Amino acid sequence: IESTVTFWDGSHRSLDSPERLIPFGSSSVQHGTAVFEGIRCYSTSTGPALFRLEEHLTRLLESARLIGIRHDYDLERLRSAVLRATVASRLSDCYVRPGLFATAPELSIDLGRVEFTLGVEVWPIAPDAHTDASKPEGTQLTISAWDRPLPSSFPSRAKAVGTYVTSALAKTSAVDAGYDDAIQLDPLSGRVAEATVSNIFLVRDGVVRTPWLSDSILEGITRDSVLALTGELGIPTCEEPVEVADLWSADEVFLTGTASELVPVSSIDDHHYPANSPVFQAISEAYEGAATGKDFDWLNWLTPVPAD
Ligand code: PMP
User: Where are the alpha helices (DSSP H) in the chain?
Assistant: First the structure.
């Protein structure tokens, strides 16, 4: 396996082959042709464990297939490389980003001519990240003028580098206008799709609602975990088309994503939500229990990282 682990401080360590850095002329750098995943590793009482590794690697393979990226990796090789990179990082609470990148300078956009290989980057994450300690009062959103890409322009189920230019446009203009992040809409229906790097949920009259998987939403793995946990908690849940107006009548709104986990929303434009969000709190606690191995019901979501 030709895998390179890159650490957050910029140092590189090769796992097998001589060190490989991605050249500036790589199709991935020039044209955004690469796919990636973000996976959390948590400290548990029995050692570090990767949360929902199988689902993330399956999505990575699906992203590559949808974009037409050809490579030599199957699930087993990806799993082994990610585990080895995590061990090599010597970190327990961390964020692991495997990606399939073009490693040679090649300016053609015919992906049949481009060779892709795996890189894994490991970043430290504060153990209390799940409490969103930096912003306990919640995040402030705006509705972006930048919609998600049209389904006929981009397969939204692919987590591909190039599509994040759309997220960056929405995020940057939101931050410039004084917000933390933006909600992006489905370009065809004008309904709520997702935030720039997370899925969105709302709670109304005790029912948890989230936009159904239309053509403009990334199938979030945290979204899937939340849907499973609400089932266990006995909280009624429904996946449905969500209109912008539904946000104004919601009692609670929250975002979900691997890196940020569950984040309460305190406002959307000039609409404010109460600080007390009981349904969010209950789901958030259940998520922490599952992710850190305290809730034995979800141990099958954890892949132990072997000792060095
Ligand atoms: N939507 C987008 C556009 C994202 O980048 C992410 C982060 N991967 C998500 C949703 C949430 O997905 P997940 O829960 O799998 O991290």
Answer: 27-31, 53-67, 75-89, 164-176, 221-233, 244-248, 278-291
Angstrom distance (rounded) from CA 92 to CA 81: 17
Q: Is the pLDDT of residue 163 over 50?
A: yes
- Unique residue bearing structure tokens 């490579």: 71
Burial of 20 (0-12, 13-18, 19+ CB in 10 A): middle
Q: Which residue has the higher pLDDT, 133 or 62?
A: 62
Which is the closest atom of ligand 1 to the Cα of 56?
15
Q: Is the ipTM of this complex over 0.95?
A: yes
Q: Give residue 1's pLDDT.
A: 34
Predicted TM-score (pTM) of this structure: 0.93
| Res 271 pLDDT > 90 | yes
Average pLDDT over residues 116-140: 72
* Ordered alpha helix ranges (H), 129-177: 164-176
294: its two tokens? 């305290």
Chain segment 227-244, per-residue pLDDT in tens:
999 999 999 999 999 999
Which atom of ligand 1 is nearest to 199's Cα? 10
Same domain, 22 and 146: no
110 and 185 in a common domain: no
- Which residue among 198, 224, 255, 261 is best mutated to probe the pocket of ligand 1, counting the most ligand atoms within 8 A of its Cβ? 198
Q: Which structural domain, as residue segments, surrounds residue 24?
A: 4-127
Question: How far apart are the CA of 143 and the centre of ligand 1, in A?
Answer: 18
Same domain, yes or no: 164 and 115: no
On whether residue 194 sits in a domain, the answer given is yes
**Cα–ligand 1 centroid distance for 107 (angstroms):** 29
Residue 33 belongs to domain with CATH number: 3.30.470.10
199 lines ligand 1 (CB under 6 A): yes
Residues 25 and 69 in one domain: yes
For ligand 1, the distance from its centroid to the CA atom of residue 18, given in whole angstroms, is 32
